[in-house]
Write a structure and sequence with these properties.
The chain is of the alpha+beta class and about 150 residues long. It is built from 3 helices and 10 strands; from the N terminus they run E-E-E-E-E-E-H-E-E-E-E-H-H.
């Protein structure tokens, strides 16, 4: 069986917005502010270990949202798929330098003004407009790519 020249990476990103700004959280591993996102988890099927089970996209998006907000979600807070839905950039990872084919599913949550995010682990956060994301440092290229795509949708 031939191996792929570049690994596929499946990511769910959540644009949590409020009054025209997007919530960004500092990712220590990346050294930059980024949108809440998480890789899709996989595991071997208990009955057939040769079969790989993938986590549902919505479950991954919920996990990323909970990590950013720091609390469980009510039904009305479950992020919905964004109109942009899927982005497939082919990129060099800024973290490890390896070329990868990213498959990003974009979700959206408009956050109630009374909800105060408290990221799990106490990571710094910043509400930014797209213009601020473009002007301020450090903001991840991935966050900028997604923010530009959803603005143009």
């Amino acid at each position: 069986m031939a191996t792929q020249p570049f690994p596929d990476v499946y990511v769910k990103a959540v644009a949590i917005t409020r009054s025209g700004s997007i919530l960004t959280v500092f990712n220590e591993r990346w050294g930059s502010f980024t949108l809440p996102m998480s890789k899709t988890r996989t595991w071997a099927d208990a009955e057939n270990p040769k079969v790989t089970i993938k986590e549902d996209a919505e479950v991954t998006a919920i996990r990323a949202t909970v990590e950013a907000l720091g609390h469980p979600l009510a039904k009305h807070q479950i992020p919905k798929r964004h109109a942009v839905h899927t982005l497939d950039p082919f990129n060099q990872s800024g973290r490890d330098g390896e070329w990868k084919c990213y498959h990003i599913e974009v979700f959206h949550l408009e956050l109630d003004p009374s909800d105060i995010p408290r990221p799990i682990g106490g990571a710094p956060l910043a509400w930014m407009t797209l213009e601020q994301m473009e002007a301020l440092e450090p903001v991840s290229d991935t966050a900028l790519y997604i923010a530009r795509a959803i603005r143009g949708a």
